[in-house]
Amino acid sequence: EKMTIRELAEKMKMQPSEIVKNLFMKGEMYTVNQEIDYEKAEEIALEYDIIAEPEEKVDVIAELLKEDEEDEKDLVPRPPVVCVMGHVDHGKTSLLDYIRNTHVTDREAGGITQNIGAYSVKVRDRKVTFLDTPGHEAFTAMRMRGAKSTDIAVLVVAADDGVMPQTIEAINHAKAAGIEIIVAVNKIDKPGANVDRVKQELTEYGLVAEDWGGSTIFVPVSAKTGEGIDNLLDMILLTADILELKANPNRKARGLVLEAKLDKGKGPVANVLIQKGTLHVGDYIACGSASGKVRAMMDENSRRVKTAGPSTPVEVLGLNDVPNAGEVLVATDTDKDAKNFAATFISESKSKLLEDTKSRMSLDALFSQIQEGSLKELDLIVKADVQGSVEALKQSLLKLSNDEVVVKIIHGGVGSITETDVTLAAASNAIVIGFNVRPDATAKSMADQEGVDIRLYKVIYQAIDDIEAAMKGMLEPIY
Ligand code: GDP
Question: Which residues bind GTP (predicted)?
Fold first, then answer.
């Protein structure tokens, strides 16, 4: 990470002597061949109004996981993947259960349902895949590697209770993830049910029913009597058609780990949602730091299957280790490829984590402290006018992490601060940092409303100073 003044000058297209002279004027002695670190280089560059950009480092994992371009002609329609979200007790589990029990796929006699994180149901002649984990854990965890697990979110709101805190949280998460929302107004069998009130309340969050002039689908349902549920399923299929969900089944499989565990008898078991391609028994696979060969696959009815195509959830046996939920599973051509993938993953993620937290602690100590809650986390969203500044800010901010507070950039990007940024900040309790950008009007009013802290800067080190101060605030509570 070090460079000489001469190298810096070359990058800045300046005479090295000029930089040395300038430093000398400030009482700092340097020679042209003297090595300086990145911070110093950044500081020097800033004096000439140049924002330093760290050299692009190749993210090996990102490279490995890179999506190859698909030919349009290879793509065929795939079932939608749906998650159910909403406030506690509004009926998410009941709804999932009702649908599962009434719309079983051609289950063979003796098939015992098992929880593999998701299940497929048959609606007319088509299929819909439901993620089994109620709540947004389902796709927040999945977004770790930028992969999207869900196409459609069914937002369950009890008609006798209306919009509640977790309803709003669910909306924010779905919006932040760019997921289509269908509202299921549940418990319409109850005497106190008021569908219109729910519609009214949700307009505040940008979900306006079609019959009220908006574009959000609202379906009144009862998870108890089953009323309206077929209609809800039809609306899911309709939305899927509009989204034109497609995948290529004839390629090496890629999937997302929904859950994984170590089973005494079976060894490592990963519940995987296949997203592209087809996974076969016998395929070589890698998944995070684990690798192996598919020994057997089971569907949600405990039946052995030989293949699993796009949008299909399966239990996969044969990995040599238990992967994390949210990891991407890839099928590889050879055993060696799979092992290499896993090995690269291990070394890369360790160095990346260490680098990101810039911590002197061991990995194990870090994890246990986070778990105990003695390590605090400061979440930031960074927006800037150019990618270089986003990266520069991220790098500098991440370096502020210390033994007690870890700085985490939960989102970074180019462009003005938008409503989505504010929503994400509100949902994650994050601070928004804008560098040479401003919030747009909706973002601003939303930030005021939600109490989201937006800070605007034109100089990088001022941003750094402020965040440093904020971290001190986290250490010493102000009464
Ligand atoms: P979750 O916390 O969102 O998963 O909610 P549950 O599915 O556990 O439901 C909470 C309670 O509401 C349970 O006692 C259910 O029996 C009840 N419930 C769920 N859906 C309905 C419904 O449509 N009508 C009525 N009357 N009760 C319901």
Answer: 86-93, 132-136, 186-189
